[in-house]
């Protein structure tokens, strides 16, 4: 058996019943084949892929907290510190009932390559809990966050591991976690990113993932003489990434016509009203039915359906494995020519293959959504130098980073004989830097 297949089999055997984790590892390993073949003997001797696919450590802990009825609740929580070859562990924290070890390991593994692609000194990590923030009072959210950090604080720090937001974790949760960390450790340091502007947050971090996704998409289209202006865009999700993807799509002259949450989806042929969407989701924390009620042009349908709408560009921005083979078929049949992932691994393996074979320009999340973590790294820089950059400064750095990521991904794909395959390009470009740093640092 060749080295890659051996390592994949080892991962499956050692991590049974973790399908998301297997899926992410398989995608990466499969596309690394040409890069590994150039140096297989050395990588095998150094067990480089075994070390890369095995997290440095996984911290699993119990979070006990008291709800508003005086009832004690108990949740599972995790932090995967995956790889710190190129910088402190860095990656978000997710609060969602679907969180388990498989989900956090897939996200942490992806984060290694994403963070490498940003060109900034950040390693890969991810954390989360099966806690469901929906319907909880502010006091309950605070109680959970404080209990969560009371355990996790031992393992994180500005030069060690720097968590941030992800699904279910936004500015409110980061604030409560930051306050509890500061209270326990007695230090004022940039241990978390995505902080509020009054206590060390960066301008443009909130917008960064969605804006970065559109900067990336624009650059990808430009590389073949195309552009976003005039395009119809389908977006899924209605959270942090989706809202700012929709906002930037408008700014670049495109028309975003859909969004969705876990209960239903909106088709708005006049284009999504971003101000209204922010009011419904960021202020009221309400369902999309409220958007539809306030917007005569919008049609709300319960369940899934965003990918059935005719569009030129599709941007999945909700969650993993939300775009299936049948969705990919509908997109292609409706003339969609580009899919860029705002979420992490939203497209199933079968759907990805179908899109690529149909000639759709497909870019994986680890490249297209790297603007969020890149701007987190810029927040870390600002915290270290005790300075605050303007919105324009951060935004222009973000844009430069996304353009650079596209160019590196594109040229890695070409160099390894797979022009236009941005999955391979992203994995190879991200991997080479990590492999170099791991090799230079010896067997650790
Ligand atoms: P939010 O919690 O702000 O929003 C998530 C959105 O997706 C909500 O509209 C939510 O609907 C929907 N959603 C979540 N889970 C499901 C599900 N199982 N089924 C259907 N819909 C679902 O999260 P973000 O916008 O921050 O994250 C979205 C994606 O982007 C995730 O994959 C995340 O990992 C990725 N990402 C986020 C970054 C960031 O900076 N925030 C950076 C890079 C990637 P509802 O509210 O009804 O649950
Ligand atoms: O998936 C991701 O890249 C994030 N959730 C953002 C991580 C970060 O550290 O900003």
Tell how many strands the DSSP assignment holds.
13
Order of helices and strands: HHHHEEEHEHEHHEHEEEHHEEHEHEHHHH
Annotation field: number of helices: 17
Q: List ligands, each type once.
A: NADPH dihydro-nicotinamide-adenine-dinucleotide phosphate, (2Z)-2-iminopentanedioic acid
Strand percentage, roughly? 5-15%
Gyration radius, in Å: 21 Å
Order of adjacent strands in the largest pleated sheet: 1-2-4-3-5
Low-pLDDT parts are none
Overall pLDDT: 98
Query: What is the percent of helical residues?
Result: 40-55%
* Class computed from helices, strands and strand pairing: alpha/beta
Amino- and carboxy-terminal Cα gap: 26 Å
What is this entry, summarized?
This protein has 17 helices and 13 strands. It has 444 residues and is an alpha/beta fold. 53% of the residues are buried.
What does this structure look like?
With 444 residues, the protein is of the alpha/beta class. It is 49% helix and 15% strand. A 5-stranded mixed β-sheet has the order 1-2-4-3-5. A 5-stranded parallel β-sheet has the order 7-6-11-12-13, sandwiched between helices. A hairpin with a 3-residue loop joins strand 8 and strand 9. The model has no long low-confidence stretch (mean pLDDT 98). Bound molecules: NADPH dihydro-nicotinamide-adenine-dinucleotide phosphate and (2Z)-2-iminopentanedioic acid. NADPH dihydro-nicotinamide-adenine-dinucleotide phosphate binds next to helix 9. The site of (2Z)-2-iminopentanedioic acid (2IT) has 11 residues, from strand 3 and helix 15.
């Amino acid at each position: 058996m060749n080295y890659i297949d051996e390592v994949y089999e080892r991962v499956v055997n050692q991590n049974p019943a973790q399908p998301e984790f297997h899926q992410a590892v398989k995608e990466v390993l499969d596309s690394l084949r040409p890069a590994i073949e150039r140096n297989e003997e050395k990588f095998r001797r150094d067990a480089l892929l075994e070390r890369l696919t095995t997290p440095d450590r996984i911290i699993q802990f119990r979070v006990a907290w008291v709800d508003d009825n005086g009832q004690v609740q108990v949740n599972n929580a995790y932090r995967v510190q995956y790889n710190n070859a190129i910088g402190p562990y860095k990656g978000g924290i997710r609060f969602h009932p679907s969180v388990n070890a498989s989900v956090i390991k897939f996200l942490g593994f992806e984060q290694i390559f994403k963070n490498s692609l940003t060109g900034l000194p950040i390693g890969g990590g991810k954390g989360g809990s099966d806690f469901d923030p929906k319907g909880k009072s502010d006091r309950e959210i605070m109680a959970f966050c404080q209990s969560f950090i009371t355990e996790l604080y031992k393992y994180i720090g500005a030069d060690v591991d720097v968590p941030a937001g992800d699904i279910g974790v936004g500015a409110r949760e980061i604030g409560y976690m930051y306050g509890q960390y500061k209270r326990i450790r007695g230090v004022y340091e940039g241990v978390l990113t995505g902080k509020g502007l009054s206590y060390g947050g960066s301008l443009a971090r909130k917008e960064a993932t969605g804006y970065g996704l559109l900067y990336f998409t624009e650059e990808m289209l430009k590389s073949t003489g195309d552009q976003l202006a005039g395009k119809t865009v389908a977006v899924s999700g209605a959270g942090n990434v989706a809202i700012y993807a929709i906002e930037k799509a408008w700014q670049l002259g495109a028309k975003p016509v859909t969004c969705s949450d876990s209960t239903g989806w909106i088709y708005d042929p006049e284009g999504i009203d971003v101000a209204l969407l922010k009011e419904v989701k960021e202020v009221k924390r309400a369902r999309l039915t409220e958007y539809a009620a306030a917007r005569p042009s919008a049609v709300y349908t319960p369940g899934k359906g965003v990918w059935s709408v005719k569009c030129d560009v599709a941007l999945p921005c909700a969650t993993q494995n939300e775009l299936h083979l049948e969705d990919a078929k509908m997109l292609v049949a409706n003339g969609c020519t580009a899919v860029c992932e705002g979420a992490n691994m939203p497209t199933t393996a079968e759907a990805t293959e179908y899109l690529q074979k149909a000639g759709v320009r497909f870019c994986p999340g680890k490249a297209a959504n790297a603007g969020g973590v890149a701007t987190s790294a810029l927040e870390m820089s600002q915290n270290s130098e005790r300075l605050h950059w303007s919105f324009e400064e951060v935004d222009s750095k973000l844009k430069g980073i996304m353009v650079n990521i596209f160019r590196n991904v594109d040229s890695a794909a070409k160099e390894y004989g797979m022009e236009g395959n941005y999955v391979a390009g992203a994995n190879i470009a991200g991997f080479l830097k990590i492999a170099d740093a791991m090799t230079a640092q010896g067997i650790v």
